[in-house]
Every structure is written in C-alpha cells, then in structure tokens.
Amino acid sequence: MTATAEKTQNTGESAKAGAVPSFTVTLKIARFDPETDSEQHWETYEVTSHATDRVLDALHQIKWDQDGSLSFRRSCAHGVCGSDAMRINGKNRLACKTLIKDVNPDKPITVEPIKGLPVEKDLIVDMEPFFDAYREVMPFLITEGNEPTRERIQSQADRDRFDDTTKCILCAACTTSCPVFWNDGQYFGPAAIVNAHRFIFDSRDDGGTQRLEILNDKEGVWRCRTTFNCTDACPRGIEVTKAIQEVKRALLTSRF
C-alpha cells in the first residue's frame, strides 16, 4: 500500500470512528392556521437527529423536508436575535439554544407558541403588545441641557450598576412566562421593566423620574408577584426579578 493510500484509509477510519450517532426524535407541535382552523391542534412529526442538534434544527428538518406549511420565527440561530422564543416541553426557551438531548428525547418533545400573546400562525405570535409596552417606558437615553462637546464620561462602577439589564435581546421569554401577564394583558411585563431599569440606573440619563412615574401606574411594576418565572425563563441569564425589585425600591426611596 502506498503512503497516500494508507493516509486516505486512516482518515476514513478516523472519520467513521468519530461519527456522531443519530437517533429518532418525535416532536409534537401546536398548529394553528387562521384561514382553516377554528382552534389550535397538535400534529406529530419524527426526525433523525444527533446529540449536537438543537430544537431549531429539528424544526428546520420538518419545514424543509416534511411539511413546508409549518411556520415559526428565526433569524440568527445563535441566541442573539431572540426571534425563536417558544415553549418547549412547557418552558420558555430559545429553540436555537436548546439541545434536543437536553429535553428528554426519549419522549415526544412538545413545541408551542409562547403564552399571553395572540397566535398568528403555528408558533408565530403577535409581538406588538409586547413592543408597545417596551416603547412606553422610553428605552433610550434622555438628557437635559446643551449637547455635550465631548463623550459623556462614566466610571466602571456606574457602568456596572446597570450592566446586567443591557443583556436583554427582547425575545419576550420572560414576559410571556409571567402569570400576571397571561391574565392581564395591560401589565407592562418584565421585559419592559428590565429595559426601563437599564436607563433609570444609567448615570448619564436624566429621564429616570419620568420612567418611574410610568411604572408607578396600576399596571406597572407593582403588579409583579415575585414568582421568579421571568428569571428562570431568561435565556441570557438576566436577574429579572432583582431588577424589578430595584425599580420598586427606587420608587419608594426616590433614589436611583
């Protein structure tokens, strides 16, 4: 055997030895088409997956190879855009960050839209109520006085004060995990409060009092019941409940 042939054989054997084993997974998906359905129903699919596959990969297989009518949102597929939030085995998760092997693939994996928002089709919900609340808390820097002639300086300690809440990707996983939000469509919800927190505690911002007045509304921060659902659901690990408590404390003490 020539050296080239021996190298080729060894490479092939290595690839075979390192192959990722495959297995069959059953997905039970909530379906709803407003043009044909009067209510939501479940449909079951089987796909071949590997240990490194995510739920999003399985959904792609179904849409591309089995049923092109399946509808869901996704964009970056890397846990940054937040568009593929859905309920997987009863918990709010990002499909692109959820490995199939981590959600008990020996049993059917249930996939349904996040709760509390109107379902438009299959796994797609109307996000406008969510973004309405987000816009209402004025999630942008508000300053007074003349435009500065140089960069606004901020210490590392001041930056650390609101660092955690800058991580929000507006996936709505926290808000749609909240029982208060499910039962009261007027509640601002955790994500809006988190994004208000990000600016209330920014030392460069002058709009904190305005935001606190907005959140002091009957459907604002006081509706939180501190169940920690939001913190558990956040795919970015934000301490959502802690942020909400800090906003409450700022309202009570006028210190922020």
UniProtKB/TrEMBL annotation:
<keyword id="KW-0004">4Fe-4S</keyword>
<feature type="domain" description="4Fe-4S ferredoxin-type">
    <location>
        <begin position="158"/>
        <end position="180"/>
    </location>
</feature>
<dbReference type="GO" id="GO:0051537">
    <property type="term" value="F:2 iron, 2 sulfur cluster binding"/>
</dbReference>
<dbReference type="InterPro" id="IPR009051">
    <property type="entry name" value="Helical_ferredxn"/>
</dbReference>
<keyword id="KW-0003">3Fe-4S</keyword>
<protein>
    <recommendedName>
        <fullName>Succinate dehydrogenase iron-sulfur subunit</fullName>
        <ecNumber>1.3.5.1</ecNumber>
    </recommendedName>
</protein>
<dbReference type="InterPro" id="IPR036010">
    <property type="entry name" value="2Fe-2S_ferredoxin-like_sf"/>
</dbReference>
<keyword id="KW-0408">Iron</keyword>
<dbReference type="InterPro" id="IPR025192">
    <property type="entry name" value="Succ_DH/fum_Rdtase_N"/>
</dbReference>
<keyword id="KW-0816">Tricarboxylic acid cycle</keyword>
<keyword id="KW-0479">Metal-binding</keyword>
<dbReference type="GO" id="GO:0006099">
    <property type="term" value="P:tricarboxylic acid cycle"/>
</dbReference>
<dbReference type="InterPro" id="IPR017896">
    <property type="entry name" value="4Fe4S_Fe-S-bd"/>
</dbReference>
<dbReference type="GO" id="GO:0008177">
    <property type="term" value="F:succinate dehydrogenase (quinone) activity"/>
</dbReference>
<keyword id="KW-0411">Iron-sulfur</keyword>
<dbReference type="Pfam" id="PF13237">
    <property type="entry name" value="Fer4_10"/>
</dbReference>
<dbReference type="InterPro" id="IPR050573">
    <property type="entry name" value="SDH/FRD_Iron-Sulfur"/>
</dbReference>
<dbReference type="GO" id="GO:0022904">
    <property type="term" value="P:respiratory electron transport chain"/>
</dbReference>
<dbReference type="InterPro" id="IPR012675">
    <property type="entry name" value="Beta-grasp_dom_sf"/>
</dbReference>
<dbReference type="GO" id="GO:0051539">
    <property type="term" value="F:4 iron, 4 sulfur cluster binding"/>
</dbReference>
<dbReference type="GO" id="GO:0051538">
    <property type="term" value="F:3 iron, 4 sulfur cluster binding"/>
</dbReference>
<keyword id="KW-0560">Oxidoreductase</keyword>
<dbReference type="InterPro" id="IPR001041">
    <property type="entry name" value="2Fe-2S_ferredoxin-type"/>
</dbReference>
<dbReference type="InterPro" id="IPR017900">
    <property type="entry name" value="4Fe4S_Fe_S_CS"/>
</dbReference>
<comment type="similarity">
    <text>Belongs to the succinate dehydrogenase/fumarate reductase iron-sulfur protein family.</text>
</comment>
<dbReference type="Pfam" id="PF13085">
    <property type="entry name" value="Fer2_3"/>
</dbReference>
<dbReference type="GO" id="GO:0009055">
    <property type="term" value="F:electron transfer activity"/>
</dbReference>
<comment type="pathway">
    <text>Carbohydrate metabolism; tricarboxylic acid cycle.</text>
</comment>
<dbReference type="GO" id="GO:0046872">
    <property type="term" value="F:metal ion binding"/>
</dbReference>
<dbReference type="InterPro" id="IPR004489">
    <property type="entry name" value="Succ_DH/fum_Rdtase_Fe-S"/>
</dbReference>
<keyword id="KW-0001">2Fe-2S</keyword>
<feature type="domain" description="2Fe-2S ferredoxin-type">
    <location>
        <begin position="23"/>
        <end position="117"/>
    </location>
</feature>
